């Protein structure tokens, strides 16, 4: 039965539903099996779980529908999905990337792919001229995080896709901070969307997962073959956890975003806070552009303390917000990018970008906004004097 075009809320709440041919169970079962019987020697749809698994299929079909992609290949972590994306390239190819990408993306290029002959240039992808200048004849990929991590910089997806295509390169967007419920890069011309599904998609800080979604079916087949060859696929139970989490994605984001909007306004007025980075604030330099390409500002906020070197006092004083890396889950988490998520970047690069010791990144969770604001306020008060 074909359904009318559905809203994202309806798609997420039905991810994996109706996938069980044996008993019609509503929730897709966990097919905890490595292999499948083939009576008579005929290979069926399922053969070996590294290649395909029915629980993973339920999630990948749902994610592809949500994103508007040709399919979705699921990996054991966001990094495994990013590695698969880079594996689509060959020796001598060049990548242009957002200069404050997630530290792990930076690290895998420098520590791993550089040794296999991939080259790369980090630029401010907000600036089309800087991207055009960085593109070389051998550039095959432009890789963008928008909003970026941790500075929430906004890059123009449609214009970057056009620019990349003019040079026979492809555009990939790390959509981890937004998800397809807020931003659909493939509709704006991107060729790939990559996820740490560990974050908002799964949403509960309890499972590592990644996804790579392509615009074209041929590319998706290549990615699927790569996943099967390299083996970093998502396990059935982990696929089930992501599937269970994703059903509430739309409502979680609504609430987390409403909380974040209030918290960002509170921080922007606070005397101990020098600067707030949040695309939902009118003073954010990417505010207007973000509104054109996304339907909400998300729930990630970064802010700079005036008492630059007292970040540890501030973090230790928090009672409700947990000091931990990661983001996008039900619990609010605070991270110190300078020493944690972005420590891989050379110090001079961090400082030049604005990833300073006083910068904190807050992933706003589902607690009551008043409680979160009270907690932040009492910890900021400790910095007085
Ligand atoms: C924007 C972004 N992309 C990718 C990753 C890597 O994902 P994972 O930790 O699931 O490997 C992260 C992790 O924090 C991230 O924040």
Task: Give the structure's gist in a few sentences.
By secondary structure, the protein is of the alpha/beta class. It has helices spanning 8-13, 54-67, 78-87, 103-111, 128-134, 157-166, 217-230, 236-246, 249-269, 287-293, 311-317, 347-353, 369-381; strands at residues 73-75, 94-98, 119-123, 139-145, 170-174, 192-196, 210-214, 273-277, 300-305, 322-323, 333-335, 359-363.
What key phrases describe this protein's structure?
single chain; 385 residues; alpha/beta; Aspartate Aminotransferase, domain 2; Aspartate Aminotransferase, domain 1; 2 domains; seven-stranded mixed beta sheet; five-stranded mixed beta sheet; 13 helices; 15% strand; globular; binds pyridoxal-5'-phosphate
Would you write up a description of this structure?
Helix 4 links the parallel strand 2 (94-98) and strand 3. This protein has 13 helices and twelve strands. It has helices spanning 8-13, 54-67, 78-87, 103-111, 128-134, 157-166, 217-230, 236-246, 249-269, 287-293, 311-317, 347-353, 369-381, and strands at residues 73-75, 94-98, 119-123, 139-145, 170-174, 192-196, 210-214, 273-277, 300-305, 322-323, 333-335, 359-363. The N and C termini lie far apart (66 Å). Helix 2 (54-67) packs parallel to helix 8. The strands form two sheets. Strands 1-7-6-5-4-2-3 form a seven-stranded mixed sheet, sandwiched between helices. The chain has a five-stranded mixed sheet with strand order 8-9-12-11-10, with helices on one face. The chain has two domains: 8-246, Type I PLP-dependent aspartate aminotransferase-like (Major domain) (Aspartate Aminotransferase, domain 2, 3-Layer(aba) Sandwich), CATH 3.40.640; 250-381, Aspartate Aminotransferase, domain 1 (Alpha-Beta Complex), CATH 3.90.1150.10. By secondary structure, it is α/β, with parallel strands linked by helices. The model has no long low-confidence stretch (mean pLDDT 96). The structure holds pyridoxal-5'-phosphate. The site of pyridoxal-5'-phosphate (PLP) has 13 residues, from helix 3.
